[in-house]
Amino acid sequence: MIFFRRKNKDKRFKRLKRTFWTLTLCLVLAAMAIGGLPLSQTLQSLLTMPDSVEVIGNHMAFMKESDPSQEVLINKLEGTEQVREVALEKSYICGVETISLGIFDTAEMVSMIKQHPDWSGRLEQDRLILNEQIHDLSPECRENAFMGVDPNGNLILYQGEPDEEKVIRTFFQLDVGTMESSLPEGVLEQLHKGIRIQDVDEYNSVLSTFSDYAVAPVGNIVR
Fold it and tell me: Where would I find the Bypass of forespore C C-terminal domain in this sequence (predicted)?
């Protein structure tokens, strides 16, 4: 696990370094604009750097408005004026929990939805199911989640040890041949036995490490 954490730490450092230089560039450009100074050719070339565009784009992603589907849900609720049972479905990176919140009238349900713009929801007969996305492992996953590989070379998140074959999620296929020649001795063997995952940092570290050996390109790892 120390190996996985160190490798993931190096990746985070590179991302932080790239973000630092992008913010520095923005401050320099702002200062020059205020002073009425022309841009040098060097600064102009920096403006087209892919890394800068990527970082700025990532920051802009956080400025999105709440899901417009909430307005559709609210319109449906107000159109029926019906008392309903409300349940909260907590969707973790690994695992789902459902909690009953009680019985509410339309005004109370609408107020609850508006107070949580990051929640989504759906109507199921006489029930309103609200969904909250949580960037963490569920309590159950913290107790018995393992990362392993199946006979086809796919990286799998298991409930329990891999030999129990209780699959939670399949990520991607691994280039096992390259892993055998690149990884420290014993890592691949441990993956076959199952690597215990107890928190989101361990989950990210292990997944980030093995994404380097994915047969196909891998996008954002954490959902």
Answer: 136-211
- Those residues of the chain that have pLDDT short of 70 are 1-68, 217-223
**Interhelix angle 2-35/50-61, nearest 10 degrees:** 100
Taking only the tens place, the pLDDT of each residue in 83-114 is: 999 999 999 988 889 999 999 999 999 999 99
Among 215, 218, 203, smallest CA distance to 8 is for 203
**Residues pairing with 120 in the sheet:** 131
| Separation between Cα atoms, residue 22 and residue 26, nearest integer Å | 6
